[in-house]
Recover the amino acids of this structure.
């Protein structure tokens, strides 16, 4: 069995393709599980939307479920056995717990993915290309160290919350290639402990291979620590286009095996099983 659980839809305004095209791509890639997990709605503190310009609105949840249904229908028509799973990629923000529980209650999702895209006062979506200039000003090692500390503290809080089945792209903070020098374990260890305690699955996300950092998320050091801590793993593409579904699966599988993983996780209605790599 082979799964890709982190993929997007055009409802987030920065992805392209029809449900049929995504399902066909998943079938062509030989997947047996294709999961849709687009950027979930968020509200500003005053309850208004849009929160930003890269997610669906709350009012679009029915449209999102229709999109997933169209994918299910198309999958059924094909001769290939492929399961369509439905989830959401939810942003971790301070005080988001009530909102996340609300999102959870809207539908019997197969899983929720938790992501850290915002750090600090929740106004800096650090992986947004519009901030390249801000990153360029943070070239000093002291600045990068501070940003990394803030990021990993935030990620640890997300893991501690226990709100999510899967935690996305663990070291996304390196996206534009900004890393502190030396051994990075000290940043990872508290987070690994929190994830292991929470029991959440982490993903090996291949999108990073196509970003300035040129590395999957997370890096090998993180993956080895996660493996030693007994944390479950999925491999995902974070596809925003049908051509990206299951991208670099083989490479990811090699990376996971090198870190000591022997299995990846299958998830259906929050229940897990395991399949060999
Ligand atoms: Zn996205
Ligand atoms: Zn994503």
């Amino acid at each position: 069995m082979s799964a890709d659980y982190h993929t997007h839809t055009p409802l987030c305004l920065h992805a392209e393709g029809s449900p049929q095209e995504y399902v066909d791509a998943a079938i062509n890639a030989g997947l047996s599980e294709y999961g849709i997990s687009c950027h979930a709605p968020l509200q500003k503190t005053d309850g208004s939307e849009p929160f930003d310009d890269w997610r669906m609105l709350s009012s679009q949840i029915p449209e999102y479920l229709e999109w997933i249904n169209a994918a299910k229908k198309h999958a059924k028509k094909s001769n290939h056995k492929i399961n369509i799973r439905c989830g959401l990629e939810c942003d971790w923000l301070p005080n988001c717990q009530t909102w996340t529980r609300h999102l959870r209650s809207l539908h019997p999702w197969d899983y929720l993915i938790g992501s850290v895209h915002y750090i600090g006062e929740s106004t800096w979506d650090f992986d947004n290309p519009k901030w390249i200039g801000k990153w360029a000003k943070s070239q000093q090692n002291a600045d990068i160290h501070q940003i990394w500390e803030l990021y990993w503290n935030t990620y640890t809080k997300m893991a501690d919350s226990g709100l999510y089945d899967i935690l996305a792209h663990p070291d996304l903070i390196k996206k534009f290639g900004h890393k502190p020098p030396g051994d990075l374990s000290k940043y990872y260890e508290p987070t690994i402990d929190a994830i292991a305690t929470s029991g959440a699955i982490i993903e090996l996300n291949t999108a990073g291979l196509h970003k300035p950092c040129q590395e999957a998320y997370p890096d090998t050091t993180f993956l080895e620590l996660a493996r030693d801590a007994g944390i479950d793993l999925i491999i995902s593409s974070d596809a925003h286009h049908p051509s990206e579904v299951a991208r670099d699966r083989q490479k990811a599988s090699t990376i996971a095996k090198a870190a000591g993983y022997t299995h990846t996780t299958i998830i259906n209605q929050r229940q897990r099983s395991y399949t060999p790599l």
The mean pLDDT is 95. The helical segments are 19-28, 61-77, 97-105, 132-137, 141-161, 185-198, 220-228, 249-258. The pocket of zinc ion (ligand 1) is lined by residues 8, 12, 14, 39, 240 (CB under 6 Å).
